[in-house]
Structure formats: C-alpha cells, structure tokens
Amino acid sequence: MPNPISQRDSFWNKIYEIARDDRRVVIVSADMGAPALDQFRLNLPGQFINVGIAEQNGILVASGLAREGKRPFFYAIAPFAVMRPIELVRVNNAIMNIPITIVGVGAGFSYEDSGPTHHLLEDIALMRAFPNITSVDMSSTINQVQRVLDQVIRAVEFLFGFALLAGLIVLVGACLSVSTLDAGTSTLGYIARLLPLGLGAGLFQSPNNSAIMGAAPRERLGVASGLLSLSRVFGQVTGLPLIGAVFASRIYAVTTLDRGMDASNAPPWAIVEGVQAAFLAGAALVAIGVVLAVLAFRLDRRRRVAALDAAHMPDAARG
C-alpha cells in the first residue's frame, strides 16, 4: 500500500504544481518546515522566503509582495499566524484589501501538549468579523474519526493503567492491614483485612492481562497467552515459598523451636508474628511493583508525547 500523505503535504504539493506554472506564487514561511516545502526550496528558491519566527513581519512581507502583483501564501503555526499579527491583518488585508493567503497549521487543540499558547479556538470568529477576508476550514472526516478513536483509545489505556496502579496500591494497603492480625482479632476483623486483598488483586489482574494480550500481534496471541500463564505459575512457585520462608524464619526467631521442627507446632502468638512478617514482606514486594509501575507510566508518557510531537508538530522548532 502507498504511504498515506498528510493533509498539510497534500495541500503544499498542489500549491507547488500551481507555482511551477505561475511564477507569481510565493511562499512566505515563518520558520516552518514540511517535507512538501523542500521542493520549493530546492526547485523554486526564488519563490520561497523564510522570514524566521516573525509572524508580523511575515504578514507585511506577504502584503508587500501582493502589492507588487505576487500571489503570496503566508505559512505559520495557526495561533501565531492569526493572533500575533491580527492588527496588521486587519489594516493591510481587511481594510486595505491586499490579497494574501494565510495558511495555518495546528488549529484548535492540535498542539495539545504545547499548552494554551499553542491552542486556537478564536481564529474563525476573528477572521469572519473582518471585511474582505474569506475563512476556509479544511478538514477530513477520516482524520477526525481517527483522532476521536485515538482519544478514546488513550482514555481506555489511561483507565486501565490507573486501575492497574490502584490495584497494586490497594494490595500494599491490604498486606499492611493483614500484618496487624493478632490472636484476638474477630471474624469481622479477619474479613475486613482480607477483603481488600481480593479487591486489589481484581483491580490489578484484569488490566494487566488485557495490556499484555492487547500488546501482542494477532498472530502471536497464543505465544502471549502462554507467556502470561508461565509468568503466573512462576510467581506462584517462587512467591509462595519466599513468603513461607519469611513466615517460618520469624517463628524460629521468636521461639525456641528447633529448626528441624514443623513451624505449625509453634504457639499461636508466634504463628501470628509469622503471619505479620509474611504480609509485611508481601507489602514490600508489591511496593516495589508500585514504584516500577509509576516509572513505566512516566516513560510511556514521555514516549507518547514524543510520538505526538513527531506526528502533529511542524518540522521547525520554536524557541
């Protein structure tokens, strides 16, 4: 399949076709980059002007070119193409009716991670208030649907990640709570302490399994399922003996039982201390999982931001 082309590059490719036959077409860029603009720089250098990060100057240059019979296209990030030179647009292009074409990229919340300075919701309202200016809002239904789907997917992934982290945190609290059991704890006390264990495990297990299976390609789902089962069994065969070792070690440490004797022969108070130590150890292990999960979320967030920057931001960087 051919590689999809962005709406931006499709637009500039069409302008390039026109510019090759019409020397009056001139691109005035506010330090913007796009793959489709490289052909102007290379093949039509006399029809490409980079004014730098100076949008007000760009409007003046484009207006001056238009007064000399050129057909200028001024290109900048939409918030800066509209809001920064708004008075110059009003005077030169609305009142004086100097014909230029202002092309902005990144309207609305396209630059969502760059903050409110890069958000633009007022452009159409402002431009429609001026005489002699026509506003055209190009959009693609497919792109819009894809962006909505991307947002939905990101929201679901966030909820899954939140549930996973919340489950681990609940498990830490549950283990600490169970570590307070003693020989005098009532039945309701046991239930109150053990119930969060099930809740935390449920919160963690489902999104964890879904994340693992969802990350695997369709043809590798069987392998992913097998690895998931293997990791679960590995956790059981290593975790239970580890916790059991902590339990027995604590009993032997607080009693005079011989190391070769069964720990179940210990007095009730010693068994209680063994249980407390075992669940404290469990809380420590799960706490390590919480720290690792937080670090993983932070790294994933950085990766997503970098991917969004690469996909939606122009090639030229703004200081």
The structural domain count equals 2
The major pleated sheet works out as: 4 strands, parallel
Give the end-to-end Cα distance, rounded to a whole number of Å. 37 Å
The number of distinct helices, counting runs of at least 4 residues, comes to: 10
Mean pLDDT reading: 79
* Radius of gyration computed on alpha carbons: 32 Å
The order of strands across the largest sheet is 2-1-3-4
Tell me the series of helices and strands, N- to C-terminal: HEHEHEHHEHHHHH
Basic shape: elongated
Strand content: 5-15%
Give the uncertain stretches in residue-range form. 312-319
Quick one: how many beta strands? 4
Category by helix and strand content: alpha/beta
Fraction of residues in H or I helices: 55-70%
SSE blueprint and pairings:
Layout: H1 7-21, E1 25-29, H2 38-43, E2 48-50, H3 55-67, E3 71-77, H4 78-82, H5 86-95, E4 101-105, H6 123-128, H7 141-178, H8 187-215, H9 221-254, H10 268-312
Parallel strand pairs: 1-2, 1-3, 3-4
Entry summary:
The chain is α/β, with parallel strands linked by helices. It is built from 10 helices and 4 strands; from the N terminus they run αβαβαβααβααααα.
Describe the model.
The structure is a single chain. The chain is α/β, with parallel strands linked by helices. It has ten helices and four strands; from the N terminus they run H-E-H-E-H-E-H-H-E-H-H-H-H-H. The chain has a four-stranded parallel beta sheet with strand order 2-1-3-4, sandwiched between helices. Helix 7 (141-178) runs antiparallel to helix 8 and helix 7 (141-178) runs antiparallel to helix 10. The relative contact order is 0.08. Residues 312-319 have low confidence and may be disordered.
